[in-house]
Amino acid sequence: QVQLVESGGGLVQAGGSLRLSCAASGGTFSSYAMGWVRQAPGKEREFVAAIARSGGSHHADSAKGRFTISRDNAKNTVYLQMNNLQPEDTAVYYCAADQRMSMHGIRTTPREYEYWGLGTQVTVAS
Prior knowledge:
mainly beta
């Protein structure tokens, strides 16, 4: 129902910053809880951050203090600001959405999200 397209990935040096964007179309953006999930080669998909319809957010321990999720409903876009990137952050980052949430609901289990983008590669050089 909703289409998600990520952008903003790239190659950075350790300590650098990137801002990922996820543009949504084909649905009512304000009705979706949104999240960011990443997957490194050979590893399971890992929850990074999520934001509720209300704007409340939650970040994984690995992201807390460095990454910030936000949303702009007027632009149908969710963002992930990533600061002080480290080599262990190297992964494909996916945007995800779920309509089956209350105003304050947040999903932290990747497999429970309904919709996914195709991902954007983030590579951090040591």
